[in-house]
Amino acid sequence: MEGVESVYTEILSKTKSNFSEVLKFDALELANKAAKSAKVLAPSSITYSPGEISAGTESVLTITGVGFGSVKGSVGFANSSDGGVSTTYALSTQVLTWTDTRITVEVPSLAGTGVITVVDANGGFIYFGGCFNSVFCIVK
After folding, report:
1. Are 118 and 68 a contacting pair, CB within 8 Å?
2. Domains and CATH numbers, the chain
3. Strand 74-79 relative to strand 60-64: parallel, antiparallel, unpaired?
4. Average pLDDT, the chain
5. Is 67 left (phi over 0), alpha (psi -120 to 50) or beta?
6. DSSP state letter for 107
7. Which of left, alpha, beta for 2 (phi over 0: left; psi -120 to 50: alpha)?
8. What sign results for the dihedral spanned by CA atoms 13, 15, 16, 21?
């Protein structure tokens, strides 16, 4: 703690004002929580069909595997508007069914070719992989 204290003392001497802790952030606690909830499945245990599908046309993608849980989570796709750098998630209403072994989801309009992400109801990543192929996107 001595190093942290000296940093705050130095800031106080330069700014002549006290600091305020806006948000406590415990990286170790968050990492431990993530490790406990992580149940990333091997890519071979997950399948999805069809392999090519249109986005934004109410087309339904079926994801099959094990360990999804019984409570609805979320499904994300590579975002076509930025070349897949970010993820666009299907709306809760677009996740049509969710069981421990099967998910059906309407592909959202911004879904592009790339990685599919499945996140459980607690926010833990279940699956991150595959190569979904969006053959047509409609931006609404």
Report:
1. yes
2. 47-128 (2.60.40)
3. unpaired
4. 77
5. left
6. P
7. alpha
8. negative
pLDDT range class, residue 122, cuts 50, 70, 90 = confident
Q: Are 55 and 138 in contact (CB under 8 A)?
A: yes
**Measuring CA to CA, which residue among 55, 72, 26, 59 is closest to residue 133?**
55
- Say what the pTM is: 0.64
Of 67, 59, 46, nearest in space to 115 by CA: 46
Helix (H), strand (E) at residue 104: strand 102-106
84: left (phi over 0), alpha (psi -120 to 50) or beta: left
Three-state SS at 46: coil
Q: What is the C-alpha to C-alpha distance for residues 130 and 76, in angstroms, rounded to an integer?
A: 12
Q: Is the pLDDT of residue 45 over 70?
A: yes
> What is the rounded distance in angstroms from the CA atom of residue 68 to the CA atom of residue 13?
53
Which ranges constitute the DSSP H helices of 16-140? 27-37
The pair of structure tokens assigned to 112 is 């592009």
Residue with tokens 């046309």: 57
Rounded distance between C-alpha atoms, residue 83 and residue 30, angstroms: 30
